[in-house]
Amino acid sequence: MDNTITTCSFFLSTLTLVLSLLVPTSYSLSSSSSSLSLENFIQCLSNHYSPPSHPASHAIYTPKNSSFLSILHMHTYNNRFSSPTAPKPLAIVTSLHESHVQGTIICAKNHGLQIRIRSGGHDTEGLSYVSDVPFIILDMFHHDSVNVDIKNETAWVEAGATLGKVYYYIAKKSNVHAFPAGVCPTVGTGGHFSGGGYGNLLRKFGLTVDNIIDAKIVDVNGNILDRKSMGEDLFWAIRGGGGASFGVILSWKIKLVSVTPKVTVFRVQRSVEKDATNIVYKWQKIASKLDENLFLRTTFDVVNDTQKGKKNVNVTFIGMFLGLTNKLMPLLNESLPELGLKRSDCIEIPWVNSTLYWYNYPNGTKLEVLLDVPKEPLLSNYKTMSDYVKKPISRNGLESIWEFMIKSDRVRMEWNPYGGKMDEISESETPFPHRKGNLFLIEYLTSWGEDGVEARNRYLNISRSFYKFMTPHVSNSPRATFFNYRDLNIGANIPSNTIKLDIARSYGIKYYQGNYERLVSVKSRVDPDNFFRYEQSIPPFH
Ligand SMILES: Cc1cc2nc3c(=O)[nH]c(=O)nc-3n(C[C@H](O)[C@H](O)[C@H](O)COP(=O)(O)OP(=O)(O)OC[C@H]3O[C@@H](n4cnc5c(N)ncnc54)[C@H](O)[C@@H]3O)c2cc1C
Ligand SMILES: *[C@@H]1O[C@H](CO)[C@@H](O)[C@H](O)[C@H]1NC(C)=O
Ligand SMILES: *[C@@H]1O[C@H](CO)[C@@H](O)[C@H](O)[C@H]1NC(C)=O
Ligand SMILES: *[C@@H]1O[C@H](CO)[C@@H](O)[C@H](O)[C@H]1NC(C)=O
Ligand SMILES: *[C@@H]1O[C@H](CO)[C@@H](O)[C@H](O)[C@H]1NC(C)=O
Ligand SMILES: *[C@@H]1O[C@H](CO)[C@@H](O)[C@H](O)[C@H]1NC(C)=O
Ligand SMILES: *[C@@H]1O[C@H](CO)[C@@H](O)[C@H](O)[C@H]1NC(C)=O
Ligand SMILES: *[C@@H]1O[C@H](CO)[C@@H](O)[C@H](O)[C@H]1NC(C)=O
Ligand SMILES: *[C@@H]1O[C@H](CO)[C@@H](O)[C@H](O)[C@H]1NC(C)=O
């Protein structure tokens, strides 16, 4: 596997299995009152939400169950939040039936417990499985069916289904249909879709949420609602505002999109020591204006130049073109001849194969890997942050960035071009506001293998320093942030305290800009007592 970093393969290639080291010796409930609440919670669920076909006892794990830790860690994708000292839930409900979801909400509410909702567990700040208050995890991974209706070009997808599963079952029915969502197959649709969701079909088809046509959600009163019964404002809010402020998503109805029988992919690497700075400078100007069938991502890695014995930055250009090489070549020849793409760099494959290619799987990997959910996920410690860029960064600016990266040695970046369909959709169509005028989205990644607080602080500091360093180059007033790359540095409430509205506003504006107020008003209608809350949830009016 090479050194490139699609968001996901970056994690895949640098991680080590450390799960076996994480067995804590004992648990203690934070107080006798939460112990009593837990008992009452379990009674409530077992007595009232336990249909004979799906007994609640088959779904409830407490630290007394021997498989508690393996269930907890089955979907924890960031070791920063799964160390022995990380806060643990009082219980995990691995829902097997809609009634378990309803019961978890009602019983937790009645007994004063907070819940964390988890689908794929990829939250970049671990917010689906850690909290500083006594809490229950509602784990949705058993709700993972994908039903494709190819005649109507739609599918119902349950919240616990992974992206890989969605891609696999679409491809089983058709090689000219696809769905625009993220590159990492293990990401869950529960969090990914409700947070916006994007991948390499973004320039042609927009975000995931631009292609959702219905949903089923359980509200704070335990009612199961669909688009019609929840109303358009709640349906609007859960397509980009984050599901966990509003209820528990059970499933989504998605609109499939059409792709060519074969698409063209390529991956070429250039060094900033040679010509990459020029190519990147030009890329900034044209990547969001290219034919919308072409998505050209760039990633930036610090590498060792073995000959010269010093460090350097390599830039990888990863392309996805909805069409064949014959059509792609003249496009790039005209817009970015500096890249020097060769016909032999290009590979023509069915769309579903391109999902494997983008994830860095070797040629010949069976499509069934899209269905794999690692029993024990690969773990590392990592921190992500994000920015939007509206004006090209100057050549000097770029060079100073490479210098900073080399000095820090730990920051990697991924730049994702916008434009195309993204320019055509209004900022208020969904809660996701970063539409026309954005050239590209930056994701920053810092990861480390060392355990312990000292290493963590050191790397988090590097990550923050880089973010600060980037200030003059990126969007401001507000500095925009992508919700799915959740980042607690931009402001966060503490769940055990009263929600501070000014803090909520500060992260809310960065994530949602002008849509924040509308999210607050939807929240006030559907969950006025703020049961569905976490560090960066939408607060109700008060
Ligand atoms: C390796 C990796 C690759 C990624 N690649 C991409 C990418 O290509 N494109 C992109 O847009 N993003 C990407 N992301 C970000 C990803 O989309 C978000 O982290 C997303 O929230 C993950 O969804 P999940 O269900 O896996 O996570 P979870 O951790 O389960 O949930 C994330 C958030 O959603 C809430 N939530 C989860 N399920 C539900 C539900 N059923 N109802 C209500 N709320 C719910 C959780 O409470 C939490 O707040 C990536 C993240 C990682 C770690
Ligand atoms: C966890 O342990 C309890 C008590 O022994 C048991 O009733 C329950 O069925 C166990 N949970 C699961 C999911 O097996
Ligand atoms: C598919 O579309 C047809 C025509 O619009 C409609 O009658 C039918 O109910 C749809 N099927 C499903 C399963 O939604
Ligand atoms: C960096 O890119 C150059 C191509 O310009 C390549 O020759 C070199 O192997 C790359 N280095 C690494 C470590 O990938
Ligand atoms: C670069 O070389 C140094 C020293 O030899 C080594 O510690 C480091 O891991 C290497 N980095 C990469 C990205 O290969
Ligand atoms: C690229 O453009 C140049 C100049 O217009 C032309 O001579 C050349 O044939 C083109 N190459 C391809 C592969 O289209
Ligand atoms: C994959 O490998 C096979 C031979 O093993 C080769 O024929 C094919 O062209 C390769 N496909 C791609 C996309 O590289
Ligand atoms: C697509 O991937 C599958 C699984 O690796 C492989 O069998 C098939 O040959 C690939 N198709 C093409 C055209 O490369
Ligand atoms: C954080 O990084 C900055 C800049 O690199 C440095 O000056 C500062 O001492 C670091 N702080 C800590 C706590 O490591």
Automatic annotation (TrEMBL):
Molecular function GO terms recorded: FAD binding; oxidoreductase activity
Keywords: Disulfide bond, FAD, Flavoprotein, Glycoprotein, Signal
Residues spanning the signal sequence: 1-20
Needed cofactors: FAD
Residue intervals of the FAD-binding PCMH-type domain: 85-259
One biological process term in Gene Ontology: cannabinoid biosynthetic process
Pfam families linked: BBE, FAD_binding_4
PROSITE patterns cross-referenced by the UniProt entry: FAD_PCMH
Family: Belongs to the oxygen-dependent FAD-linked oxidoreductase family.
This protein's name: FAD-binding PCMH-type domain-containing protein
Organism of provenance: Vicia faba
